[in-house]
Fold this sequence. Notes:
It is a single chain. It is elongated and about 145 Å long. It folds into three domains: 75-117, no CATH class; 135-315, no CATH class; 320-509. The protein has helices at 2-22, 25-70, 74-80, 137-154, 168-179, 203-214, 268-279, 326-335, 355-368, 388-391, 448-455, 459-467, 471-476, 479-504; strands at 97-102, 112-117, 163-167, 216-225, 228-237, 257-261, 287-291, 300-305, 410-412, 415-420, 445-447, 507-509. The protein is an alpha+beta fold. It comes from Collichthys lucidus (Big head croaker).
Amino acid sequence: MGKSRFHWLCFPFLKLTSSFRRCPLSKSSLIIASVCVVYLFFVVSQVGYSQQHRDRRTDKDKYRHTRGLYNLDVNDALPDSVDSQTGASFVVPTRSNVVYITLKSKRLKPANIRGTIRPKLRRKVRRTKSANSAFTQSKLGTLEQDAGQIKHNFTRKASWGETKDVDYKTLDIIHKSHIDAQTNSHVSSIRIYSQRAPPWFSPEDVKAMRFLADAKVLRVKEVSRGVSSSLLIFEGKTGGPVSDHKSAKLTYACGGQCGVINSPVDTTEVFAFHLDRVLGLNRTLPAVSRKFSLLHDGQPCPVVSWDASLYPEGLAAGLSTVKLTWGKYQSSLKQRCWHKNTSPKPDSGCSTVHHYEWSKLALFDFLLQIHNRLDQSCCGFRPRQEDACVELGHHAECGDQNQIQLTNIVHRGHDPRHLVFTNNKGFFDRNEDNLDFRLLEGIKELPEHAVSVLKSRRLREKLLQSLFLDQIYWESQGGRQGIDKLIDVIERRAKVLLTYINAHGIKVITMNV
């Protein structure tokens, strides 16, 4: 039964095979060629269909990936991706931009600083044609020649009590028209992206920093201050009230809110300001870096906030300073002058400065190795031949140290109990084997908050977060790599200071004075 069924199924195939064998050779070749052509056509059509299906799957995956990044629906893509005013197409990410500062240190758990950038939606401001656009190339050339003459005048010092006013509007025209025509004036170089600044900055500090960095300069003038070197002051335009000066004699120096322009080599002023705020001392004046196109060849200059209260008797009389010799200074440290608000005896030799202020000054100066206050003669370390104390012959005075005069001990005219740290010229190139320990001589107490910051191993994190706010200073020091090198120096000195505290039994106490 099974064999007959098999023969019945195979009978058509056998019959076709036998008839194919009986066909002539030409006809059989034609049949074989036709079958091959049909098979080839079938194979080509199948390959094209599979390739087209694969392309469709790839497009779907790309669309799903794009949709996952930007979360755009098909119905919402057209109105959200076309600007109704300009017609330009764009996509708006749903997540805000994030700036990360990753700390590379030798610690097992490096800290991270995260600042979220949330760009504010700003309306497009129509740029109207101003008088600046009316200047031709010939007039710009004339202004450049005048600006060169003004720059040459800046290098000369003014005579006694004389001031040199410069109309900065001309300089501003050159800067905007010739160099920075497309710069957005609303963009600040002080980068505060979160809701508020770091906690060690007060609202007054933030206002001062923004003014120094972004205020429109009305005029620049050079004023003399007695026997000291002259000051280069710029007066800026501000929307706030004019500061109230204690003396009418100061109106010729600054009629509103001003800043003092220092030399580009004095960049330590900016670092000192941030270190002072991070340590909680709050004794320095706000300082930022700023570029002036016609000053110092456009290099970043430290700009320090102008404080008229430091000159209660006028610029000709100089700063309100404390006159002390090294011997009297050491004697006042032993007597703990004004401690617990106790008035010293008239013949004690105490100055008007509170006892705790010397501890803050010593800690601050040691970390930055500032010797021009407590050790102007460089008696506590090995100076170089190019140092000012050696060139001026002050280093030879170290034989009679008790008679050496302290310098740059400044306080405000209405607040003689507290010091103001000015002219903070620090040195980062001094090795640990040549530190000036004379700055710590006679100090028996140090501020608790500042020492706790040094012990917490968060000094680097806080300094990075703080210095990142000043974009011009950050970039002028080589970015993250250059800032890290500066902080490395401070961290090594902090370790030396902590060892010194333990070795000499120095007390760490709260100094809320």
